[in-house]
Design the sequence.
């Protein structure tokens, strides 16, 4: 009794450890997903593990990020992933099929199971009552090889949704409202579990919009119960047999609680340059808009796009606006083509892209200089759209569509149109022609590696003393997009760490790689929530390649901290946060008695040689994490215990 849904699923999958906050547990991973921009590393690492078969029930390799093929690099990566998938028994989703999270909801997700994905928005699956956790590529490779994942037991936060949404207010506004309340740090250390009568008001894809952006709260994952609307979705997707009801106990215990009255939510926008910089649209209305992008794993479902089509039907996109739409899946595109909605979008003047991440990760459609771009996406970090001085606002599909007509940021509540009612088809299009399923007999299959695929860097065993200069000092909330930017120019090099290293910390400085090469080793000092955002382990592998030994910050985001540990880079926190002020770039520091202190769980002394003072830093992690760090990262550790 009194069990949360989260604890029920973790308990069902528990292999070892005790299910109580802060203890470390190992769970069975039922499914994994990878996408191509993190996937190349995953499959290089899987190759390094020398296994024959994967141990999950199902693993899928999606190609959805790097679909622009301006040179041979992305196509080489696709071929590498395709052949690796075939070799290990993994389902391969061809480019053009759609965005991993939307496709996983449509075709594979199962209530009550655990999904690990090499993408921070894997929690989208929580809309389907799964525990979907985003992780670094190496953790996903290990999950495929062993069928397990080790994590710290999260606390559980309950968000009770009551009431009913007003017309023109949607799930995107709900999660923006929550981001405004909790901020990008508010979910760190928690799984967010939604309950309450308001849950019934939300369709499965609405729920997935909300769990998707739980990643922006820093949460380990977010989850909705599996009930009526879950069955409805699975039935329409022709997968009724995958349904099972799974709910929290009525008297479930939660570590924290927030009540959200859906009636109070009104249209919201996250202003530049953070998803928690949220305001009511009525307070910032009438900003002139240059570009509007609709799609991404947050808002590219059939219902979202049908709403947009119905708002645009028979009208014209404002002459000053470039409206671009990227559907979530090929099947959604097909249905919209069959029912005429695609024609309505084209007639209104929209630009239609293939079903993929596209502009969300800066793969094309960078807006013009100083542009205002409204996007239905989940992240508006500076420069992520591909244009450094552009201002990106995150909004709902309804707000985006209405604003596309008016040419300025418009509160849909005031526009006076009738709210579009979308009637779902009884049965969704469920073609599987973009999937390649693995053969039973895979003997002798070879992995194909083109010239763009370079080996990944490996660390060395930890040493007792590190003396190194501070190469960079950052502010709070530095993102992995800052540490290792991604855009159409850089994404083709995700399997080429030496090339990527030239752009490390590119949004903050052009010189990091030069300084690092001169110093040969270095330390980075960070603020709170260091490494928030994506799961890309390149934000650890590239600093590793450049000789970074430790990051000393006020606090870390979960996935990035795990990626640092997996790479053998020390993620340390200041014992006294105020000590952050006492360190500056170029100071030379000495970390003493590292191995001893880690083993004994003691504070680590840091001596600032330049300024001649000492203070303490701390490593917060499990005994397993300490073993990984001592070995010089996860792969060295795995080799050692083999
Ligand atoms: C993102 O939205 O930032 C990405 C691109 O999907 C990343 C993965 C990556 O960097 O390849 C994520 O969210 O993990
Ligand atoms: Fe793709 Fe954007 Fe979703 Fe990342 S956030 S998976 S880039 S659609």
Sequence:
């Amino acid at each position: 009794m009194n069990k949360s849904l989260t604890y029920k699923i973790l308990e069902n999958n528990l292999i070892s450890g005790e299910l109580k906050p802060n203890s470390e547990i190992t769970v069975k991973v039922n499914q994994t997903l990878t996408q191509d921009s993190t996937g190349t590393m995953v499959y290089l690492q899987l190759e390094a593990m020398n296994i024959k078969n994967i141990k999950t029930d199902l693993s899928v390799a999606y190609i959805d990020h790097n679909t622009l093929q301006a040179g041979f690099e992305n196509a080489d990566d696709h071929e590498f992933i395709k052949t690796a998938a075939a070799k290990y028994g993994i389902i391969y989703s061809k480019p053009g099929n759609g965005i991993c999270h939307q496709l996983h909801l449509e075709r594979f997700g199962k209530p009550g199971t655990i999904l690990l994905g090499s993408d921070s928005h894997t929690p989208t699956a929580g809309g389907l009552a799964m525990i979907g956790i985003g992780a670094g590529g190496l953790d996903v490779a290990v999950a495929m090889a062993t069928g397990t994942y080790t994590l710290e037991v999260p606390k559980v936060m309950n968000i009770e949704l009551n009431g009913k949404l007003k017309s023109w207010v949607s799930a995107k506004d709900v999660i923006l409202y929550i981001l405004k309340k909790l901020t990008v740090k508010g979910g760190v250390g928690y799984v967010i579990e939604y309950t309450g009568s308001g849950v019934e008001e939300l369709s499965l894809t609405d729920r997935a919009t909300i769990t998707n952006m739980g990643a922006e709260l820093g949460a380990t994952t977010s989850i909705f119960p599996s009930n009526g609307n879950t069955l409805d979705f699975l039935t329409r997707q022709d997968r009724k047999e995958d349904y099972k009801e799974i709910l929290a106990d009525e008297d479930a215990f939660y570590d924290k609680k927030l009540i959200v009255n859906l009636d109070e939510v009104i249209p919201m926008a996250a202003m530049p340059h953070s998803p928690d910089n949220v305001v009511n649209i009525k307070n910032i209305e009438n900003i002139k808009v240059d570009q509007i992008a609709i799609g991404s794993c947050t808002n590219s479902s059939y219902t979202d796009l049908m709403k947009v089509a119905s708002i645009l039907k028979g009208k014209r996109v404002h002459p000053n606006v470039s409206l671009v739409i990227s559907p979530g899946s090929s099947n959604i595109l097909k249905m919209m083509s069959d029912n005429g909605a695609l024609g309505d979008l084209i007639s209104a003047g929209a630009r239609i892209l293939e079903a993929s991440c596209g502009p969300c990760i800066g793969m094309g459609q960078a807006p013009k200089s100083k542009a205002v771009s409204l996007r239905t996406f989940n992240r508006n970090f500076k420069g992520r759209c591909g244009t450094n001085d552009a201002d990106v606002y995150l909004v709902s599909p309804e707000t985006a569509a209405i604003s596309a007509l008016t040419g300025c940021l418009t509160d849909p509540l005031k526009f006076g149109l009738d709210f579009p009612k979308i009637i779902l088809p009884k049965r969704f299009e469920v073609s599987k022609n973009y999937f390649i399923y693995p053969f039973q007999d895979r003997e002798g299959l070879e992995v194909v590696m083109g010239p763009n695929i370079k080996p990944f860097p490996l660390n060395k065993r930890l040493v007792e003393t590190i003396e190194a200069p501070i190469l960079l000092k950052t502010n709070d909330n530095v993102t992995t997009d800052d540490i290792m930017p991604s855009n159409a120019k850089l994404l083709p090099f995700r399997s080429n760490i030496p090339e990527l290293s030239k752009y490390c910390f590119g949004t903050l400085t052009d010189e990091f790689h030069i300084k690092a090469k001169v110093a040969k080793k270095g330390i980075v000092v960070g603020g709170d929530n260091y490494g928030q955002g994506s799961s890309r382990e390149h934000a650890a592998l590239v600093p590793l390649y450049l000789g970074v030994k430790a990051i000393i910050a006020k606090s870390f985001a979960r996935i990035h901290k795990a990626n640092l540990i997996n790479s053998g880079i020390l993620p340390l926190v200041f014992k006294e946060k105020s000590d952050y002020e006492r360190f500056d770039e170029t100071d030379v520091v000495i970390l003493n008695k590292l191995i001893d202190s880690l083993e004994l769980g003691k504070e680590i002394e840091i001596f600032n040689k330049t300024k001649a003072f000492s203070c303490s830093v701390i490593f917060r992690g499990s005994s397993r994490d300490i073993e990984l760090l001592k070995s010089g990262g996860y792969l060295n550790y795995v080799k050692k215990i083999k």
Observations:
- The chain is about 30% helix and 20% strand.
- The two ends are 41 Å apart (CA to CA).
